[in-house]
Structure formats: structure tokens, C-alpha cells
């Protein structure tokens, strides 16, 4: 670790996050222009006789590299969007997935750091000019950089190792600018993740940005989770040490990032971690009254004792009564093929608009495949399974596409739906085989007692 002296070679004008709106807009605009330009060039190369598969692979690789460079460098809303997309890469067809998988996965934890001088300035602003006295040691080099802040390692004055998350100056301005611009390009980004509705994802990120920008809100969420899971043999939630609007200090966790398990973990580890992820997702609303709503691998780690460590509680859904009961009832009805009862429940809870002439059997045919993981004692989540689901609902020529577009997702369920889809995406990245049915029966209200 370093001492607290400012580095003389740090520049005051070197920003931690690019803030000029015009410059950020130009960079984001380069994404669709670049992709379109490469598509035209690839068409020309195919006309000259080059192998179409090789040309498409080269185009995908270049598009992915540009995606990472632009979204990762800009941080802010651009990078947050990239992180949200990254959990859905399992849905991308194998022939074009490799370059996007690499680029999007890198977005889960990578971004250029801000200079030490700027970090010190933010700490002084948030913790007071004597902030150094609160630490026995502080490492100027960040251990991780993310969408709106970066994390440093240090030692608190009482000897505890701590993680210090410092928000980038101008993160609020950049977040708003990026999300407005990205919403304009939502149709183009849709092609990167078939079967995932990008527009509402961006709308949700925009609606929740004020919560994520205030680290005091995140600290309150993390304290609630830490209390609910305190002493649990399966999970570790770091305790909050101190917080301010733009600085959050928590206990340090030494663990293996989930991304390493996805990249090279053995089968047993993948299955254990997959079960823990599912258990955490379904049990949190019942235990904490909250749902962790930022499911990407960068927020999960494996401790040496086998526990799943969970971090980053800036985005949560408040569910004081747990997951709504009728979601469990709908799942059970779809699983058992009870189309008429399912249709009635969907209408009653606003999932089908009044006057819509959808047929019960068609709606069941659309929803039933999503319940496949609950039809057997264990289920093997794979990329191929997720790709089938994505292609089924994303094929504009098919009936399932029409049914999906005709159903209504009430706003209060959007977060639950996205988190469940994101968690499923991680399970497919892991290739985990888990007892999903038993987990849902235990934690999802309405599922077990709706059975025939």
C-alpha cells in the first residue's frame, strides 16, 4: 500500500469520467455508425468471394472491441448498460458469441481509473479534510473500477481491512447524458441480445439512477442485507463501516471473482455456486424484504470457506412482503398446463390488457417453456437452452414473438422480471445443474400451494 502524499505527476485536469456532453454523445454515436459501416464493408468483401462465415466473425470481433472501448472508457450510464447486457451474452448464438462474450464480460469489472489526486480530493470533500486520520493505510491504486465509481483497498483506524468505493466526479451528469443517448439507439443494440427487450432495460436504469448515485442509500440497503444474512453458512455480506453521499466504506472481502469460475471452474464448483446464486435470489425478498437487482458476475465472489460473497447494493427492489404470491401461482399454473386458470390470473393482475383477444392456449405455449427448470428434480442450465428461449421469443416471424409483444408487464414487476432473467443468464454462463424446483418451492410464495 502507498502513503497518503499526493503524486506530483497527477494532473488536476485529468478527469475520472469524461463529462462533456458533446464529446460523450459523439463517442456513443460512433457505435451504430461503426457497426453500419463495417456491415457495408463486409457485404462488399462477400461479393468478392470471401467466406461469409469468416467475414461475419471478423465483423463481430471488431464490433465487440469497439463496444468495449466506447462503453468502458466512458463509464457512467454507458458502462452500466454494458454491464447489464453482459449477463445476457449466453443468449447470443455461438457462431457470433465469442467476441461479444469477451468484450461484454470485460465490462463487468474493468474501466480506466481516475488519478490519485482526484480520488484524494473526493475523499476530502466527502469525509472532511482530515480523512487521512480515519485510515491506518490507504492504497492509491484502485483494485476495481466500475460504472460510476472505483474501489480502493485500505485499513480502517481500528485495524479492519476495508474497501473504499469512491464515486467519479461528474458521474451524475454522465449517467443522465448516456442513458438519454443510448435510448435513441435501443433498436440497434437489440440485435446484440436476441430475446432481450433493451428499451425497458434502459428506462429502468434511468429511473433508478438517483438511488444508485447516493451511496448513503446503498449503505442502508447493504446494512439490511448484512443483518438478514449475518452468520449464514452459505452467504457473506460485507458490513458497512462508514458512508457519505459519494463514498462508501465496507469490510474487505478476499475471494475468487465469479467470472473466474465461469471461465474455468470445475463442474462441482459451478453447480454449488449456481445453487447459491439461485438461493440468494429467491430467498432475499423473504429474508431481507429486498431484492438485489444488479445481477452480473462482477458483484459475486467465492470465499475460501465456500460462501458466496455479494457486493454492490446500489440497485435493489423493495419487496417488504416478499416476492408477490401470484407470481408463484402463475408459475405453477404454467408448469402444470392449466391454461384457463393461468389466463384468469394474468388478466386479474394486469398482465393482459382489457379487451385483448389472446387465446389461453397460445399464452400457455409462450410461457410454459420458461418453467422447464422446475419440471424435474434438477435442471442443467446451459447456453444452448437460453439461446433456444431467446430465439423462440425473438423471432419476429413466430407466434411466440406476437404473444410476447401482446402481453403487458406492469411496471412494479419489471425489476423482478429483469433480475430473474439476469440471474438465469448467469446460471447458463456457469452451465450449472441445480435443484431449482426445491429452491422455488421453499422461497416463492404461491408456488407450492397452487399444485393440484
From TrEMBL:
InterPro entries: ABC1_dom, ADCK3_dom, Atypical_kinase_ADCK, Kinase-like_dom_sf
Transport among keywords: no
Domain ABC1 atypical kinase-like, residue spans: 106-331
The keyword Transport belongs to this UniProt entry's keyword annotation: no
Keyword entries, A-Z: ATP-binding, Nucleotide-binding, Transferase
Cross-referenced SUPFAM superfamilies: Protein kinase-like (PK-like)
Family as reported in the entry's similarity comment: Belongs to the protein kinase superfamily. ADCK protein kinase family.
Name of the protein in its database record: Phosphotransferase
Record organism: Amycolatopsis acididurans
Lineage, uppermost ranks: Bacteria, Bacillati, Actinomycetota, Actinomycetes, Pseudonocardiales
Amino acid at each position: 500500500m502507498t502513503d497518503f502524499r499526493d503524486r506530483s505527476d497527477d494532473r488536476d485536469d485529468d478527469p475520472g469520467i469524461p463529462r462533456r456532453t458533446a464529446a460523450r454523445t459523439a463517442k456513443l454515436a460512433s457505435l451504430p455508425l461503426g457497426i453500419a459501416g463495417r456491415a457495408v464493408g463486409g457485404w462488399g468483401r462477400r461479393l468478392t468471394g470471401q467466406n461469409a462465415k469468416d467475414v461475419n466473425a471478423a465483423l463481430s470481433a471488431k464490433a465487440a472491441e469497439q463496444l468495449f472501448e466506447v462503453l468502458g472508457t466512458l463509464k457512467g450510464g454507458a458502462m452500466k448498460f454494458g454491464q447489464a447486457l453482459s449477463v445476457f451474452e449466453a443468449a447470443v448464438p455461438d457462431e457470433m458469441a465469442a467476441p461479444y462474450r469477451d468484450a461484454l464480460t470485460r465490462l463487468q469489472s474493468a474501466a480506466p481509473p481516475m488519478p490519485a489526486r482526484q480520488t484524494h480530493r473526493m475523499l476530502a470533500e466527502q469525509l472532511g479534510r482530515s480523512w487521512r486520520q480515519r485510515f491506518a493505510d490507504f492504497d492509491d491504486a484502485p483494485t476495481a473500477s466500475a460504472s460510476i465509481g472505483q474501489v480502493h483497498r485500505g485499513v480502517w483506524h481500528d485495524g479492519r481491512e476495508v474497501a473504499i468505493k469512491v464515486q467519479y466526479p461528474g458521474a451524475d451528469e454522465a449517467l443522465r447524458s448516456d442513458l438519454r443517448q443510448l435510448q435513441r439507439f435501443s433498436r440497434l443494440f437489440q440485435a446484440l441480445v436476441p430475446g432481450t427487450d433493451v428499451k425497458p432495460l434502459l428506462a429502468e436504469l434511468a429511473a433508478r439512477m438517483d438511488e444508485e448515485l447516493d451511496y448513503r442509500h446503498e449503505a442502508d440497503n447493504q446494512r439490511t442485507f448484512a443483518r438478514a444474512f449475518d452468520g449464514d453458512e452459505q452467504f457473506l455480506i460485507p458490513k458497512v463501516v462508514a458512508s457519505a453521499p459519494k463514498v462508501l466504506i465496507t469490510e474487505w472481502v478476499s475471494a475468487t471473482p465469479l467470472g473466474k469460475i465461469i471461465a474455468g471452474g470445475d463442474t462441482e464448483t459451478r453447480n454449488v455456486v449456481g445453487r447459491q446464486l439461485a438461493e440468494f435470489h429467491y430467498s432475499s425478498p423473504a429474508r431481507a424484504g429486498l431484492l438485489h437487482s444488479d445481477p452480473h458476475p462482477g458483484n459475486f465472489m467465492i470465499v475460501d470457506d465456500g460462501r458466496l460473497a455479494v457486493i454492490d447494493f446500489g440497485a435493489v427492489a423493495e419487496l417488504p412482503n416478499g416476492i408477490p404470491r401470484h407470481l408463484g401461482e402463475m408459475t405453477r399454473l404454467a408448469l402444470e398446463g392449466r391454461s384457463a386458470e393461468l389466463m384468469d390470473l394474468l388478466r386479474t393482475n394486469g398482465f393482459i390488457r382489457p379487451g385483448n383477444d389472446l387465446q389461453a392456449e397460445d399464452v400457455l405455449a409462450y410461457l410454459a417453456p420458461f418453467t422447464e427448470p422446475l419440471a424435474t428434480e434438477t435442471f442443467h442450465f446451459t447456453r444452448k437452452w437460453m439461446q433456444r428461449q431467446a430465439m423462440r421469443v425473438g423471432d419476429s416471424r413466430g407466434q411466440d414473438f406476437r404473444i410476447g409483444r401482446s402481453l403487458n408487464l406492469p411496471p412494479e414487476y419489471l425489476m423482478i422480471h429483469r433480475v430473474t432473467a439476469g440471474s438465469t443468464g448467469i446460471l447458463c454462463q456457469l452451465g450449472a445443474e441445480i435443484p431449482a424446483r426445491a429452491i422455488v418451492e421453499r422461497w416463492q410464495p404461491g408456488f407450492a400451494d397452487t399444485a393440484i
